[in-house]
Design goal:
Blueprint lengths: L5 E10 L5 E9 L2 E6 L8 E4 L5 E3 L1 E6 L1 H7 L3 E2 L8 H8 L7 E6 L9 H7 L5 E5 L4 E4 L1 H10 L5 H6 L6 E3 L2 H8 L6 H10 L2 E6 L6 H13 L5 E6 L12 E9 L8 H13 L4 E5 L2 H14 L6 E4 L5 H10 L2 E4 L2 H13 L12 H5 L4 E3 L10 H10 L16 H6 L22 E4 L3 H4 L8 E6 L2 E4 L4
Parallel strand pairs: 1-4, 6-12, 7-8, 8-9, 12-13, 13-14, 14-15, 15-16, 16-17, 17-18
Antiparallel strand pairs: 1-2, 2-3, 5-19, 9-10, 10-11, 19-20, 20-21
């Protein structure tokens, strides 16, 4: 086995949790930072002149769906900002192609009547399935339905019912549909490379169906070099049987609530208790006030474990913040949705709730540990865009949405600097830390005024240095 060569980064700007900066040299070898200070190059050591550019730990996205993101790279965008009208949707899905057409990102503002009949009338003569931006709903045309029906012939009757709706609207059936119509694995290597080029060196995959099979798949992808990032895998309770490995760790039990079909409170409470007994926290999808109230009631009955998380906290009325504090819960939220979906929220969400959408500043002010995830592919995978949204709180059209929830650039950056096991404590460049790094072309005082990925110069992911090409 070839011994890892050390790399020395000369004259980099380091910042601490408060944003104070200093210039240092940093040496790393393999997976570990071995020295920080005034360092002299060693014989045959690669040396990189940082020229005063900012050097920070690699970014961690604390809420992703990696397989869905990879599949989205082979899909047609069917919603904003690329597609904003029914005419644009017709144009998008009728571009030349053959076989299955997979669309993503659809929202009702594009087309109010998207269903089987609409796709048959306006779509191409090929199987079509389009995913709603929420990730919960797929809309199929007749050719697609016929293929699903044929493939589902051997399913149990209760499963056949879930994929037999005549209108082509399939809710919460991803696992069944994937097994029926997926012909090949999504391009994880391509997705991983794209994330590295954005500075993302670690992810928490929050797909609720993650199980032992997904664990083995991710491990194989890491061993083959296709999956570059460190991964914390959250998902089903059965993941508790997995042993943590270098670069792959078991995360929270993920619970995906839907306020129209909530589980029995008693069964939810029992799931939380069982998860806690195995030493795992619980991460609960809460995008409505109803889901949040239900979740708080369940934690109040079951008790909480350090690290129990509210995912999204899309709607957080101020009167519920105190309950979150009392229960000791933490929040992983998506400020990027303020920019990406803010105009739709202003149009569709009652005005009385606007101040409750994707809070950040008020959570921090009340002592709630808060970190960020992009929710890719349902959100833009660029963490720098999420940081900008957290500081600006403006929609795509430039309207304010919860401007009092804006945070400083320092706080926005820290939302992606926590470790995967503890997203709420900022990592810094120190001796003994993992050699996951982002070297930028400019110092922090310039970057904080322009939070953007184009500043990235070099990424170090699990000890491997990767140059970022000019954008």
């Amino acid at each position: 086995m070839t011994e890892a060569r050390s790399i020395l980064i000369k004259g980099a700007e380091l910042i601490d949790e408060a944003g104070r900066s200093r210039r240092e040299d940093v040496r790393f070898c393999g997976d570990t930072i071995t020295a920080v200070g005034a360092l002299m190059p060693r014989a045959n050591e690669q040396c990189v002149d940082a020229e005063g550019g900012l050097l920070i730990p690699g970014l961690h996205d604390h809420h992703v769906h990696l397989a869905s993101y990879a599949a989205a790279l082979q899909s047609v965008r069917c919603g904003p900002p690329e597609v904003n009208s029914e005419a644009e949707l017709v144009e998008a899905i009728n571009r030349p192609g053959s076989g299955w057409l997979r669309g993503t990102g659809f929202q009702e503002g594009v087309c109010q009547q998207l269903n089987r009949a609409w796709l048959d009338q306006h779509g191409p003569n090929r199987p079509v399935r389009i995913q709603h931006r929420s990730g919960r709903l797929w809309i199929f045309n007749t050719l697609a339905i016929e293929q699903v029906k044929a493939a589902a012939a051997n399913l149990a009757p209760h499963e056949q019912v879930r994929v037999s709706r005549p209108d082509g609207l399939y809710y919460d059936a991803d696992e069944i549909l994937g097994g029926l119509i997926r012909s090949e694995a999504p391009p994880i290597g391509q997705a991983s490379q794209r994330l590295v080029k954005l500075g993302v060196t670690g992810i928490n995959d929050m797909t609720p169906t993650n199980d032992g099979v997904a664990w083995d798949w991710f491990l194989g992808l890491q061993n083959s070099g296709d999956l570059l990032q460190r991964v914390r895998m959250s998902g089903r309770a059965e993941l508790s049987a997995q042993s943590n490995l270098p670069g792959l760790a078991c995360g929270e039990v993920k619970v995906h609530l839907h306020d129209t079909v909530l589980p029995e409170l008693e069964s939810f409470v029992e799931l939380i208790r069982t998860s806690h007994s195995s030493g795992r926290g619980v991460a609960v999808h809460c995008v409505t006030e109803v889901e949040l109230v239900f979740t708080l009631a369940a934690f109040r009955a079951a008790g909480t474990l350090k690290g129990d998380r509210i995912e999204h906290a899309s709607v957080m009325p101020f009167e519920l913040i105190e309950q979150v504090v009392e229960l000791g819960l933490v929040v992983v939220t998506q400020p990027n949705f303020v920019f990406e979906r803010g105009d739709a929220y202003l149009r569709d969400v009652p005005e009385i709730q606007h101040d409750s959408l994707y809070r950040v500043r008020s959570l921090i002010d009340q002592g709630i540990a808060t970190a960020f995830g992009t929710d890719l592919p349902f959100g833009n995978p660029d963490p720098w865009a999420a940081m900008r949204a957290a500081t600006e709180r403006r929609t795509l059209s430039g309207e304010w949405l919860g401007e009092h929830e804006a945070v400083s650039p320092e706080r926005a950056l820290s939302g992606f600097l926590g470790s995967l096991e503890n997203p709420f404590v900022q990592r810094t460049v120190t001796v003994g830390a993992e050699s996951d790094l982002c070297l930028l072309k400019a110092p922090w005082q310039a970057v904080r005024l322009d939070l953007a990925a184009h500043h990235l110069r070099m990424i170090v992911c699990r000890g491997k240095a990767i140059d970022v090409k000019e954008r």
